[in-house]
Records
---
Amino acid sequence: MYFFGEQRLTMDKRFVSGKDMSMSLSKQLQVFLLHARQDEESVRRLYRRLLKEGADVWLDQEKLLPGQDWVYEIHKAIENSDMVIACLSRQFNKQGGFRHEELRLALEKAASLPEGTTFLIPARLEKCELPEPLRRWQCVDLFETSGYKKLIRVLKEWAVIP
């Protein structure tokens, strides 16, 4: 539903433990994690991993303050993000909620960027169908052994572009 990151229990154990290859980013990225509330445990693990890599990751429970207009803050966070990682699961596909508005905003921003720009990354937390609007982008399977390394490789490539 917001920015965050982590994985699902079915994900590779190296992803969960953080024992796979460490790849610190050379430039701080603003990353928004879009997810279903039911995937929060997995998304929080991803959030912590990305923070350790040097990314600035927005998580509602960490960034939103009492009294803030959360809809406005989420819109602003997506607009200011360098990348959006859509954390996908069967739960994401099943239920409604504000995450679909977040996805719409991310798709609008992606459409406004030059062709070939990496902005929206579909990241599957488990085997599941990709929502129709995300099928044009190559997804990363974070439940696979090499999934996290592939994700970090993309983030590192973005971080070294002047």
Note: Confidence is low (pLDDT under 50) at residues 1-23.
---
Amino acid sequence: MTAPVTTDLPKTGLPPGKMPELRVMPSPSDANVYGDVFGGWIMAQVDLAGSLPATRRANGRVATIAVNSFLFKHPVFIGDLLSFYADIVKVGNTSITVNVEVYAERNRLQADIVKVTEATLTYVATGEDRKPRQLPPLESLLSTR
């Protein structure tokens, strides 16, 4: 008989070959009296991290229209160094869906790394009038670089 596979075990490293969209360390004002960082603060940082690839793909302004899923896997503490990784998982006519994973580096001298949050958010490209607009073709974005 084999042991069941569990997916709740902490990660032991940052995602290989990927660069974080955002890195930040929460301060005491971001936490409750017990030293646990507020979930709302983490959600705001996730929204910022997810908006970065969405803004690049939209080649301009985006607005968050949905938080499709959000899971707090482990608590975040004052002094944790958080790394936010964001990947576009779906592109529509005006919308971009982004998956965000958050890792906490605890006790950086001992390299204790834990995946603390994962979320999926949807953004919509907006024009100057703040109304939805078509995304530019991917080819047009690649040819300008």
Note: Residues 39-58 form the longest helix (20 residues).
---
Amino acid sequence: MARSEDKIKEGAKPFLEPGEEILAAVVARPRGWTQAGASQSGGALAGAIGGAIGYKKQQENVAAAEEVRFELANPMALAITQRRLLSIGVTAPIGAGIAMKVQELVSAVPLSEVDSIAVKRLAVGKTVTVTVRGVPFKLEVGAGANAKGVAEALERAKATA
């Protein structure tokens, strides 16, 4: 298990309901964050255009999540318990979770309202498409993050519910 996942599981305990435990978790940001930040090194014009596109993607994904009353933090931990999908505010991690701290429970929805979590490879990471009540929104995670483990935990938890 990744160091960041261990820290999320430990740090989020005060925000869990009695008998609830985190089955899987990953550090994520709204899709577009990397593009917005990385574009700055491509020159002034390229940086402005790329940054604007990345920022727009972020805002679209944040708005989609808000539509289903699921708030995204930046950065955040996306976590699955036996009962809920959680958005947990965390401090910005360095590497594999070094110096990351869990801050607060930002949002939660029952697993019965989560349609799916799909993971796709990206150039230097992965995109995670979360669909809640028919509304998809995208997150991005690092290449080493166990996003597939979060998707699998959702399927297992829903199958035993």
Note: The longest strand covers residues 22-30.
